[in-house]
Every structure is written in C-alpha cells, then in structure tokens.
Amino acid sequence: MRGAMAIGVVLTAVFTLAAAVSLAWVPYDVARLDISQRLLPPSLAHPLGTDHFGRDMVSMLMEGARTSIAVALVAVGIGVGAGVPLGLWAAANRGGWLDEVIMRANDLIFAFPSLVIAILITAVFGPSAVNAILAIGIFNIPVFARVARGGALPLWTLDYIMAARVAGKGRARISAEHILPNIANLLIVQATIQFSLGILAEAALSYVGLGAQPPTASWGRMLADAQTMIYTEPQLAVLPGLAIVAMVLGLNLLGDGLRDALDPRLRRRAL
Amino acid sequence: MTEPLIRVAGLGLSIHDMPILQDVSLDIAPGRVTALVGESGSGKSMTALALIGLLPEGSQTTGTATLDRRDLLTLPERAWLDLRGNDIGMIFQEPMTALNPVQTIGAQVSETLRLRGTGRAEAERIARDRLDRVGLAHVPLDRYPHQLSGGQRQRVCIAMVIARRPRLLIADEPTTALDVTTQAGILALLRDLVEEQGMALLLITHDLGVVARTADHVAVMQTGRIVEQGATEALFRTHAHPYTRDLLAASRPAPRQPRAHATAPVLETRAVTRRYGATTAVDAVSFTLHRGESLGLVGESGCGKSTLTRALLGLEPVQGGEIALMGAPGGTAMTNAQRARLSVVFQDPYGSFDPRWTVARIVTEPFHLTGRPQDARARAAKALEQVGLSASDLAKYPHEFSGGQRQRIAIARALITEPEVLVLDEAVSALDVRVRAQVLRLLDDLQARLGLAYLFISHDLTVVRAICDRVLVMQNGRFVEDGSIAQVWSAPQSDYTAELIAAAPTIPDSWLTS
Amino acid sequence: MPRALLTRALSLSLSLAVASVVIFVMLQAVPGDPAAFMLGLNAEPEAVAALRAELGLEGSLLDRYLHWVAGMLTGDFGTSYTYRVPVADLVADRITVSAPLALYALTLTILIAIPVGLIAASRRGGPADWGIMGATQLGIAVPNFWFAMLLVFVFAVQLRWVSAGGFPGWSDPGAALKSLTLPALALALPQASILARVLRSAVLDTLDRDYIRTARAKGLSRRAVVLRHALRNAAIPVLTILGLQFSFLLAGAIIIENVFFLPGLGRLIFQGITQRDLIVVQSVTMLLVFAVICVTFLVEVAYTLADPRLRR
C-alpha cells in the first residue's frame, strides 16, 4: 500500500512541477503555429514530436497540465470555501430549518446531471476557462457540504463538545475550534477526489470545445483535435490521454493513501 | 465432580507475535456455570474466542482444549462448521448490533436449522419454541431487531444459540450493556437453561457481583493468566491471591459515613418539565442540593436523568418550572459568571477530550467563562496536582493517558474555575473496578477539602452508596424516591427502588465477614 | 406507501419545480434574440417580430414560463427554432437511441462490477484482490471519451469489426445493438470500476460488523455469511452509488454520442446549443433532470425494500 501512495505522490508531483515550470518557461511558444514543423517524430529538439500545427508536444502537455490543475484546483477551492461552512453550519443546527434548507438545496444540485448543467452553463455564458471553473465548482459545493456535515454530526454527540458548550462556547466557535480540525482528514481526502474528478470534467468540457479556448493549451482540446485525424495520426491521441490518466491516477492513489494514513480506524484494522 | 465437557490445558496465545494468553488451564463442566472474571485487557474474551475457533487473523496458539477427545485448537475450519452452533454457541456483549438489521428474528433464529436441512415449518416451530422459552412468547417471528429493546434482543441472541441445543454456551459480558433489572432477568434465564438442559455455561464478565450471583466455579484472570480459580463461594471466602483481594475490595466500596453539610441551597429545581413532542422526558421534578452535600441521582436508561442533566447544565431549555443556581436563575438563563460556578465530568474517558488538544489547553478551556487569567497555566498545573497528576502532564495529549488518568484530567478541568457544584454524569461507570475505587477516593477527598456539592448521576447503586449522602431515584421522568442512603437501603419508599436494590448483583456480606 | 417515502416524493417534486425555474431563468440569460439569429443579419424587423410571436417569445417572463411548464405537463415541449417541428417529436426520435444506450451501459456496469467486486472482497489481500484493485484504479482514471477513441481506433480502424460511428436504426435490432456496443462499453468500464470498488468496500465493511460474528458463532461458513448476511446489508451503499451513476451515464452519454456520431439526446442538446435552438436545450435538459429525479426516487424505494429500519 505504501508503494501505491508513493506512485501517487510522484505522479502528482511531476505534473504539478510541470505546470509550475510552465508559468515561467516552456520549451516552445504554443501560440505560434508553424506548419513547416508539423507532425515531426520525437527528436532532441522535440522529445515528444510536434502536432499537426507544428506545436511542440512537451510544451503543449506542460501548458495543458497547468490548465487542468488551475481549473480543478480553483473548483475545489469553491467547493471547500462554500461547502464546508454550509456543512458545519447545518451540523451545528441539526434538525433546524437551516439544516433542512441546506440539505434540500444540496439534494437539488445533486438532482442535476452535473456535466449536462456544466455544458449548459458554459454554453450560456460562453466557453472559457473561468466558466468551466464555475460550472465544475458549483457541483463541488454540495459534495463538501455533505462530507463536512456527515463528519461533524457524530462529533457533536461527543463529550468534549458538551464540555465546550458547558464552558460557554457558541456553536460557531466550537465548529471552528473543535469540529473543523477533527474533520480536516475527511476534507483533505475528499479534496483529492474532487480534484481528480475536476481534471476529468475539465478534460471533458474542453474536449467538446466548452473549456479553455485557444491559444491556451488543454488536454481535452488536444484530444478533440487528434480525433479528426485518428485514421492517419493516431499517436496524437495517445499522449494527452495518457497525461489525463496519469494525473487522475496519481491523485486517486494519493487520496487513498492519505485516507489510510489519516484514518485511525483503518490504521488499527491494519494491525 | 463430573467429567469436564471441555478441558483447557496450558493454553497460550499470541496475535502477530504479541503475547496475549499464557498457560491458561480450565475445566468447563456440564450443567454448571463457569465464570471467567477480570478487568479489561485480561484476556478473558480471547480465551472465549479460542474455544469457538473465532480468533482474529494472525493468532498462534499453544496447549490444548479438548472436547470429546478432539483438540479444538488444531481443528480445521471444516470441522468447526459442524461444531459451532451444534456443540458450542456464543452470545456477545452488544445486543444492539449483534443481530442482522435486515432479517426478521424468526429467520435468524431458524437459520442454522434450515441450513442443516430442517424443513421450513419445523424450523419455524423450533424458532417459536425457543423464543417462547427465552420469554419472548408475545413477540411474533416477523419482527425485525430494531423493533425490540436491548434486553429483548439479547433474549433473541440466546434463542438463536439454543436453537440446536449446544452443550457449551459462551456468554461474553452478556449483560454489561443492559440495565440492572434487565440484567437480572437475563442472568436468571441463563441459569435456568443450564439447569434444565445440562448445558455448560462459560460466563465472561468483569463484575464480581454477577459472578457471585450466577457462577458455580470462577477463574480470576489478570494480564493473560489465571491467577486463581475454585468454587465461587469458597474462592470469595478465602480470596487467597492478592489480586483477587484487590478486586473484591474495589467491587464493594464501603458505604459512606453520613457527613454533615451546610443547609444553604446551591442548586434547586422546582417542577422542572422537559417535553419532546408528545413525550414528557422530565415530569415536574423538584430537588435541592446543599452546599457541600453529595446527592445521588439513580435511574435506568431512558428514565430522564440525562435530559435533566442537560437542562441543569443549561444545554437545553425546559418547558416548565424553575432552575436556580446560588439563588439566581439557572439552566439556559445562566450568565457566564454563573456557569463558572457549575462544572461537569462526563462518563466516557475517551470521548471527553479533543484528541488534538494538549492537556493545558483542555484544562483551561473553561476560562472562556471567566476570561483567561494571567496565571492560567499555573492554575492548570495546580488543578492537575489536586487530582494526583503533575504539571509536566500539561504538554501531553489525551491519548498518552490511561482511562483513570483521563477521568482525573476531566476532574481537573471541572475544578479550574473553582466551582461550587460538580455534576458527575456517570463519571466512574466506564472504569475498571480498581481504578473506579481510586477515582471515588479522589472525589471523596476533594469534596472534603474544597467543600464542593456533588450531583452524582449513575445507574450503579453500589457506587452511589459509596459517595453520596442522599439519593434520588428516577423512573419515567419522575422522582420515586428521595432519602438518605441509610434510609433508602433499609426501608425504600417505592417498590421500584426495592426492585433496583434487589436486582443489583452483589456479593453476599456473609461470604466476606467470616 | 410509508410516510418517509411520501415526504421524499413531495420533496423531489419540489426539486423538480425549482429545477425548472433555474433552467428557464438561465436560458433567458443567453445573449441575443433567437429570432434575429435565425433570420440572419439583414432580416426585416417585421419578419423578426412575426417569428418571435410564432416561437412564443412574446409576453412576460412569467407567462412564458407558465406556458412552457403547462406545455411540458401535457407533452408539448414547444417547437424547435431550427427544425420547425415539435420538440416532442425530436425527443421521441432521439430517445430511442439514448435510452437504450444508457440502459445497455448500466447493464454492462452491473454485470461487470458485481462479480468483480465480490471476487475482490472474498479474496481480500490476495493476488486477485490486488489485480482487481489495480485495474479498477486505472479504470476510474480513464476519461470515457478517450477510452471511446481508443476503442474506435482498435475495433473500427484497425480490426474493422464495427463501423466507427453512426446508428442504423432499430429496423435491424442486431445491427443497432452492435453499433451501441462500443459506446456502451466506453461508458460502462469507468463506472463499473467505481461500482466494483464500492461493492468491495461495502462488503468488507459489513464483514466487520457484530452480527457477522454472531452468524459465524452459530455455525455459518464464511461463504454463507457473505451470501446470507453481508450482501443485503452491503446493498444499501451500493444502491446509492448506482443511483448517482445513472446521472453520470446520462451526462457521459452526451459526450460519447458525439464521439460515435449517434443521433441521441446528447447530440440534440449540442446542436441546440450551437444553433441557439434554446427551446430544444431547455426542454431536453428538463427531461434529463426529470429522469435523474425519477431514478433518485426509485433508489429510495429500493432502500426501503432493502432496509426494514426505514419502513414505518
């Protein structure tokens, strides 16, 4: 199991590093198209070759990593930022009307087929990375609200919460001081899961042309371009797909590893 | 002496190379109750699991356990399938989770019969017969476990086990999760079954009172060994081994000598009522707690004592009546300054502290009520010393302490604001008897030194008798008894109190005085 | 019907009502006038006004909303701006592709996931478990549209077993099913990976429960314990995931239909978006939400059947 987590850490680190480096430097400018350099095989100058517009594949993949990570990360941020306070609030007022409203609103969002609505949002407000972030982020909110509420409810019955209430502390303060630190494990694990789902969703949206727009590179868009040439140049579809698989796999392995490492119940079971 | 059904000889056990049991030797005789008694971690449950072939993975055994000239410890799983249920059955501590929630009780009682080829109608007839036998004649077969009470569920477990009339029944803490009156019924049922069917019963328990009331033969376990065994009464009378002597002394703390206290009331309720929807959990109860007095509040689960406690602590509103603390309005109306005069110690030594906080932060949390003083840390150190811990413990985390030490930390936290009233909510119920005795001594000592008033909430009459001056008995949301310890024990006013006292398993005085 | 289910039904109907408002309002925010868009830049204002009236774009927001909802309730989904035919006819036509595809994928998901999950759970820690856990971990990470492209490349381009896309219609059911096989497989594999893992952990979780120990103590074999006690208790979390997966399958189908050029609801939505045929987008989205809510309710009914504690 430790091996699996190590693979997860390495994969996640490689892509994060590539994305970070791409902020400052990429081997070639992907905005510049050069038909004379199109479809070159791998070489020293282009380790992974070039695509049908003559763009360097390494540079495209690095920028694609940046787009994916940026979109998924901000979407997770939206989910955590809005969902966790709502979930904590609902748990602190269990059975109250607020709890009811928050949980019903959650049900409502779950009732929408998420990708359909994401497509709708980006279609209505125009395709762009920002709208993709919003579309994905909105569906992260109920997920984190549920996890936070579900994690917080059993804690509220514990004696140390009673002791804090006897010590005169209000629900908000108890949520911040006692509940949040004790559900942080759950939230971190959920965040890695939503992060990887966000990467898949971003790829799907940009694959159908509703994500980041050219000249910004993105893995989904690279796949869409490659699809038209699947008969003649199938290799173009391989690299971006593998990049998505590797990134998502890395995050999932990392998330599983974290869950096992952070959950004392599982640790005990491993004995 | 009859021939033993099972002879355990030199049983040793290690799990993943951790030694658990050493040289356990025990004869289990048919038609008799053999008790295995010890504190948590003594290895009594593991001994039981070894005898039914359900040890956890990674277990390694030495020695033998012989049934019908076969060694149970080396039996292959295939052979166990015939033995379990047929010759050896087992019931467990937690009746609330021991039954499959999605199957009817009829299906669960008749399941093993059906699996071994008994026809449906015949299996159902036997299931009905066994349920009748365990006192559930009025419960239809198509009920689900969640529709039954804890005591009823334990009876279903017993019916399930006796479906195929095993020769040995192992009962692991079968009544620990139940109320005393329910416990008395289950123990009587088990005894009857032993006599009626000539079955052997191996009773695993931590409670010497249960042993005295139920067992013919007793073996005392400590850290994986049997330190002493013999016929129950003889063993109790001689208690040769020092460990047995300690256990016995701790199990029967001496009743408290009446102690004088002031007449000034510190905590008072008048006709306090708390309803949830149509049910009235607390029904117009009134009592007065005086300065320096120790008042017990006794009742079985669901009697309303927890609800009343929450109302007194100001965690829940009441629908009627008044609560007064030091003459000012109490309950939810308390100001922070007033709340500082009233502290609480909870039952669960594991759930009482935020696992991520240091002891210093835990103990000083109640300063939220008074504003954090300059010398907060020094006062935390002083509170720890008062309860027998040291200032060097301030930087540690809760998991570094044992159950008894944790209860001491909880008491230190309760003392930090120098309160007048301490509410002790089942504060010693989760502790092993010897630790319980130490904490009770500490509480008694603190009361004498600091002049505190205690409201001592418990389900355990023995404990209440050891620490309280006066006792309230609660049933169905009302007080049915209010009197001094001596008076209540010699001449209880209500039948319910008399029933509670009779049901509480105790060691007969005559066994120990000779 | 138990009261809990009745309240659930009411609450889900409320969700449906709120969903319709959200979808309607969102599509009002689309910039531009569909009528002007349809008639091009040089259209006469009178012609545009006439078309607006014909499309039901006149009147207050509330009137238009109520008109739309009332229409939906009677099976009138409006008239497509581009095709000038009732949306209901378009839907009726396309649903014969999308519904079979979703069901096909769901069936494959269940058929793959249940044996795989059970094998992993019963061989916990063994080589079969490790292999299955590794494969499903990979299966979850693969985007279904990329998997679809790989399938097309291998089975259509290289092996030429099937055509790369298109749908021959149901006149020849064999050919129709064949053309849906790759898309269904592409949809099912990632979902089956998820479901298998959920089933495995649900079974392992129930195996840790006290009542399993009770059942073992009364003489049931490990196998009998899994089949008779663990499975039905494990069904409860599995049902939850299965319900959620249905909505993933619906959404995933939109993209997969594009990969395989299948004339389903997904492509209809897409064409609607690119051609600004908003009434189509609005009504089809509403239909999908309705389907998801119905499935949610069915899952709750299944829960109640599986768990007697929920029956009152």
TrEMBL record, chain A:
Membrane topology: Multi-pass membrane protein
GO cellular component: plasma membrane
A GO biological process held by the record: transmembrane transport
SUPFAM superfamilies per the UniProt record, alphabetical: MetI-like
Sequence ranges assigned to domain ABC transmembrane type-1 in this UniProt record: 65-255
Gene3D superfamilies linked to this entry: MetI-like
Presence of the UniProt keyword Membrane in the record: yes
One of the Pfam families matching this protein, by short name: BPD_transp_1
Matching PANTHER family: OLIGOPEPTIDE TRANSPORT SYSTEM PERMEASE PROTEIN APPC, PEPTIDE ABC TRANSPORTER PERMEASE PROTEIN
Protein name: Peptide/nickel transport system permease protein
Species this chain originates from: Jannaschia seohaensis
Automatic annotation (TrEMBL), chain B:
PROSITE patterns per the UniProt record, alphabetical: ABC_TRANSPORTER_1, ABC_TRANSPORTER_2
GO cellular component: plasma membrane
Annotated localization: Cell inner membrane
Location (main, coarse): membrane
Origin superkingdom: Bacteria
Keyword terms, alphabetized: ATP-binding, Nucleotide-binding, Transport
SUPFAM superfamilies: P-loop containing nucleoside triphosphate hydrolases
Domain ABC transporter: 6-248, 267-501
GO terms for biological process, alphabetical: peptide transport; transmembrane transport
Bilayer topology annotation: Peripheral membrane protein
MF (Gene Ontology): ATP binding; ATP hydrolysis activity
Lipid biosynthesis found in the keyword field: no
InterPro entries xref list: AAA+_ATPase, ABC_transp_ATP-bind, ABC_transporter-like_ATP-bd, ABC_transporter-like_CS, Oligopep_ABC_C, P-loop_NTPase
Coiled-coil regions listed: none
Family: Belongs to the ABC transporter superfamily.
NCBIfam families, sorted: PRK10419.1 (NF007739), PRK11308.1 (NF008453)
Protein name, per record: Peptide/nickel transport system ATP-binding protein
Organism, scientific name: Jannaschia seohaensis
From TrEMBL, chain C:
Subcellular localization, as worded in the UniProt entry: Cell membrane
Ranges of residues in domain ABC transmembrane type-1: 95-299
Entries under Pfam families matching the protein: BPD_transp_1 (PF00528), BPD_transp_1_N (PF19300)
A GO MF term: dipeptide transmembrane transporter activity
Top-level taxon: Bacteria
Membrane topology qualifier: Multi-pass membrane protein
Transmembrane segment boundaries: 101-121, 142-161, 181-199, 238-261, 281-306
Protein name: Peptide/nickel transport system permease protein
